[in-house]
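Internal ticket #5521
Category: modeling
Description: The requester needs a full-assembly model to guide mutagenesis choices. All entity lines are attached below as received. Residue total reported by intake: 874.
Assigned to: D.W.
Attached entities:
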Amino acid sequence: MQQVINVFLIGISIGSIYALMSLALVLVWRSTRVVNFAQAGQAIVTTYVAWEVVNRSGSFLMAFILAVAIGGLIGGLVESGMMRTLFKHASDGPVAAVAPVIATLGLLGVIRALVGLIWTNEGKRFESPVSTAGFVIGDTTLPFSRLNLLIICTAAIVMIVFSILFQRTNLGLALRAAAYNPEIARLSGVKVSMTRTIGWVFAGAAGAVAGILVSSNDTLNPYSLDVLFVFGFVAAVVGGLESLVGAVVGGLVLGVGLSFITFYLGTSLVFPTAFIVLVIVLLVRPSGIFGVKGARSA
Amino acid sequence: MLKRKREESSKREHNPYRRRVLFFLLLGWGLLLLGDRVSELRVYQGALIAIYALAIGSLILLTGYSGQLSLGQGAFMAIGAYAAALTQIYLQPPLIVTFIAAVVVAALFGAIIGGGAARLSGPYLAGTTLALALGLPTLANLFSFLGGETGLYFDVGIAPERFGAEFTLYKWFFWIAALATLIMLFFIQNILKSRYGRAWKAGRANAAAAQLVGLHVGRRKVLAFTISAGVAGLAGALLGMVSLVAPSTFTLSLSFAIITGAVLAGLTSLTGSILGGLVLVIIPEIAEMVSGNFGESEAVTANIPGLITSLLLILTVLFTPNGPAEQWHHHKEKKKQRAL
Amino acid sequence: MTLKVERLVVEHGAIRAIDGISFEVAEGSLAAVIGSNGAGKTTLLRTLSGLKDAKLGKVSWMGRDITGMKPEDLVRRGLAHVSEGKSVIPELTVKENLALGGLWRNNKTELAQSIEEVVEIFPRLGERMSQRADTLSGGERQMLAIGRAHVSKPSLLLLDEPSLGLAPLVVEQIFQTIAMLCRDRGITVLLVEQNALGALAIADKGIIINLGKVVAQGDAKELIDDPALRSAYLGY
Ligand SMILES: Nc1ncnc2c1ncn2[C@@H]1O[C@H](COP(=O)(O)OP(=O)(O)OP(=O)(O)O)[C@@H](O)[C@H]1O
Ligand SMILES: [Mg+2]
């Protein structure tokens, strides 16, 4: 029983990171109807920046804040620089239909190459800001550590901030309106081109948090967040890709599920399981757990 | 098709290698004994161009003609490669059979995945196939007969003796790859020109309209996916032949490289696929020259090719949304119209 | 101080939906635009509110050229457009839909006041403030759409077929509200309608368009009585 709880908590910890990446993808999807395949790439940059700052100053908090700020900045620049040009030139050719996918993949490549040029492709050890030793209760040591707790708390704070922002503020209302119906939003005076950029900014910031958290106590290289992206995508699809709540729940469910699989069946089944979950969700309930019917063909 | 390939290579290849293509076909291996001015590396690169061209062709078949973008061509290539290697190891059939096995098994997987994929569009399909490309190679560690990280060795043997003693292994690889690619591309071209090919195009242009005239868009999409996977499987087997049938061969980067090549080739013209293959092989060469100027640090040599291809990818999709080839075509036609 | 449309031409690709339309609407008056399906009414409104670009021609409001301006800027100049169909966002609550109209003013007290006014006009919305808009009936949604426009405090209100799909009694109520907004609050209204009789009955001016051209315009009462127009365009 105790073991089950442990595995569950570990799952929540990793799942909350997936949830953040999933949130980032959903934010971008809602604002521009694009899946940003460079989301993890953007996070790679900010995670390297954080690594650099931690190494130089030793302050994890400063590294974190800087990474989140830069993450937002990169998101905004990508939207206003690349995506806008893309939509301006968009036509109905065979490439145009898949252009956003290709463009963000290209961006991913550019980012990786630049990161590799600056920091080399060699893995960097990202030290955990807090102890990774499991909590001790009585005379048993749990696998659940301070780092896991920190991850859960950080992710929870980010989610609470987002939920207040979206539900309680004028900006949040504008963002939601623009996501659901850009035309009515514009007719109500919402500057939709601005809400698009803001969506990317928030996504960049959320992705940055996910990148740091997943890399803590792990090795960082230009490719190390690929897996995070895929799990974030699966979580977003499970949650319906439209819903912020869905994204979070999708991430947590996936994290917990995969944690159990890792523990009881072994690591090598994690990927196949995630893939099968993705395919099943897409085939059986294409609008996700929280999605609206018919939203899938956008 | 064969002729066109020769013209392509004669136009774009600067080494005397293309001459040997002609000479070999005209005079046979006897002339090869006379002089071997092309290094083994070039022969190997020739094989790579052919293999990439075939993989790009499989993607063009899928995207250009059915509007689906798969990020998972690398996964189907892996399936083909493992199928070929396993067939060779356990059955040791004639060479051709191993390649047929590669096509059939990969196509089978393509049909299964295509069955679901046909219902997905745009980013969903892209994301799903991405997960496939990233996840499938990890299966190699799950089953011991797949050889784990070290992988399997797909042994096609050495060239038959009648080709002569000078006929190196890489030359043998090249001829297998080139021949397989040409036959396959010829086959794809025929499909695209057929009723089916036009139906796919119709499906891409307007799903609703195609449905109206009685075309089963879903079923055709699955078919497109199946054939594309089969072709990719063959390309994978060939790639396994020249390198190794292992997870490290069929990485995500491979899938991305194929996409880059296909986008640069324009996604609509099959002949462009050979150009795309050429670009993929040439860019690392250029990168090597460029990185020479920056000092030969490993970070530079490892990342400049990626930087160049990715930048090209972005610029292509930003400024020539229908592919450079088509854009050029457009340009010429406009000029013609103005002249009239 | 009028809405002035001069030789407006609007195209959807090869289709010329608006083919040289000119008319004026005096400030504080109510003009009805009548025309059959595909006449170009929706296209006209979408061009006026900036959702669609004009190919040729000029639109001015209160003496200023507003051609080619963006919808989000036009809202700030007092133009509100209730688009065709129930122009609400179903995923948001009734209150949020209303608040949307007042977002650009960024003033909490003014917003609360405007929302109260809307509730006065449409008491049914008041009881459903925290309900999602997709739980509303068609008539209530139309009220909500008009309410949202009202919250943005327009001086020019563009309405696209507000009676579409509503029961006769509700249509009557909506029409009376529109007339009231114009008479009591001095809002200039451009009302697009299929329901020619109902619209012309409350309008000062009628503009009849067909295939993108104005075929007749003038005093609403006179248009109703014109027998030639009746049989050709008004259909009763
Ligand atoms: N987005 C579009 N693309 C192409 N053609 C369009 C588009 N919107 C409208 N049209 C065409 O423009 C013409 C005018 O359409 P519009 O919607 O303005 O008519 P309407 O008067 O509002 O009709 P209804 O009473 O049915 O709403 C029609 O021929 C229509 O087919
Ligand atoms: Mg209309």
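Resolution: model delivered.
Comment from assignee: Residues C 12-13, 15, 17, 35, 37-43, 84, 194 surround adenosine-5'-triphosphate (ligand 1) (CB under 6 Å).
Ticket closed.
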